[in-house]
Amino acid sequence: MPDQETLERAHEDAAEGKSASTQAGEFVREEIEHVREGKHGAGSVKQAIAIGLSRARRDGVKLAPPGRSKTSKQTRRKAELDEKAAKKRHKLSAKRSRATEAALKREGRESASSRALSRQSHKAASNRTRKDRSAAAKKAARTRKRRS
């Protein structure tokens, strides 16, 4: 269950008309903080991000489904289930929750270091084409908040 503060920030982003990825970013940020605080670990930065995105989907953030090319069938299925869970609340399995928590506690904390996050973001950026980067920059300039 995400913190109340995270939910509020995500709802605020939604009310301001910000993109789904911006709203989901709040959940990812919270997950990284959990790893840093030692609440649990993560095997990699990608895993911490995936947990955050999953929580976002379960809380109703309308994220696009994972891309077909590089994403496993299992990941796409999980995203589908998360979206269903957002529509219909059901009692979570206590046994499964404990098992998941225990497994995450055994994982390392290094995945939330600034060095690991930097390495991941550089790797992700290098996979984007020049055209993609240019389009993102143009959109950022177009949608930037003006100073009053």
Explain how this protein is built.
The protein has 148 residues and is an all-alpha fold. It has one domain (4-143). 66% of the residues lie in helices and 0% in strands. The chain is built from seven helices and no strands. The chain has helices at residues 4-15, 20-37, 45-58, 73-87, 94-105, 114-126, 130-143. Helix 1 (4-15) packs antiparallel against helix 2 (20-37) and helix 2 crosses helix 3. The chain starts with a helix and ends in a 5-residue tail after the last helix.
Concise summary:
The chain is mainly alpha-helical and 148 residues long. It has seven helices and no strands. It has helices spanning 4-15, 20-37, 45-58, 73-87, 94-105, 114-126, 130-143.
Integer-rounded radius of gyration: 17 Å
Largest sheet: none
Overall mean confidence score, pLDDT = 88
The assigned structural class equals: mainly alpha
Strand fraction? under 5%
Give the distance, in angstroms, between the N- and C-terminal Cα atoms.
37 Å
Helix content class: 55-70%
